[in-house]
Amino acid sequence: MGGVEEKRELILVAAFRVLGEKGYAGTRLRDVGDRAGVSVGLIQHYFDSHENLLAPAMLHAAVPSFDDQARLWLESSNMVMQYPHLSPLLQSVYAT
Questions:
Q1: I want to staple 60 with a disulfide (CB 3.0 to 4.6 A). Which of 3, 12, 75, 77 is the partner?
Q2: CATH class of 4-93
């Protein structure tokens, strides 16, 4: 992975995994760098603090999961029938 966005994503994924293993207080930039295969300096280039790395890492992991769940919900006719008021909202966000 050579591009800026690819490196940034690699760091976010590594940070989320280390966070899950060691918790917030136990997650160190060095651990994230080792997991991602990048230097601490590169992490600091993209994220200027521990907090500015870990919060986006959690969000980065949560958003795709929510997107997948919403799409599955829309594909389930049973859920659409049970909650018809939510269907138009989700369809406007996840229109294909």
A1: 12
A2: mainly alpha
Cα–Cα dist 30/43, whole Å:
9
> Cα separation of 22 and 51, whole Å?
15
Residues 71-82 pLDDT 10s: 666 666 566 666
Given CA atoms 19, 24, 26, 28 in this order, what sign does their dihedral have?
A: positive
- What single string gives the DSSP state of each residue in 6-29? HHHHHHHHHHHHHHHHHHHHH--H
**Taking Cα atoms as reference points, which of 59, 37, 57 lies closest to residue 47?**
57
Q: What is the pTM of this model?
A: 0.62
CA distance to 33, 59, 72, 80, per residue, from 37 (Å): 6, 21, 34, 44
